Amino acid sequence: MSGLAILSQDGTTITGMIGPAVTDMFPVEGTWEGDKLTILARPRKGRTTALAKCELTGTRERMTGTIDTDKGTIEFVRKQRQN
Fold first, then answer.
1. Cα 37 to Cα 58: distance, rounded to the nearest angstrom
2. How many CB atoms lie within 10 A of CB 66?
3. E strands along 1-83, which residues?
4. Model pTM greater than 0.85?
5. What is the CB neighbour count within 10 angstroms for residue 24?
6. How distant, in Å, are the alpha carbons of 8, 25, 49 from that of 13?
7. What is the mean pLDDT of each run of 10 residues along the chain (83 residues)?
8. Cβ-count burial of 28 within 10 angstroms (0-12 exposed, 13-18 middle, 19+ buried)?
């Protein structure tokens, strides 16, 4: 399964949106500390998400990690934004 994440960073604070498609995204927030990114889902009222929390390590270009610690793995691959 693939999806889209649009994230912004202010110091160690991460905010943004994540979801299966640009038309079906939900807010996320998290922290970036060293090589570790932790993201928490903030689904809208009445909605569910595939993850509540994911923890990733790696570089800004490619990160891998776990979903909710035990639900599976996730990979983020950085791509240039399309205008």
1. 9
2. 16
3. 4-10, 13-21, 24-33, 36-41, 53-58, 62-67, 72-77
4. no
5. 10
6. 8, 19, 21
7. 86 92 89 92 79 87 84 82 65
8. buried
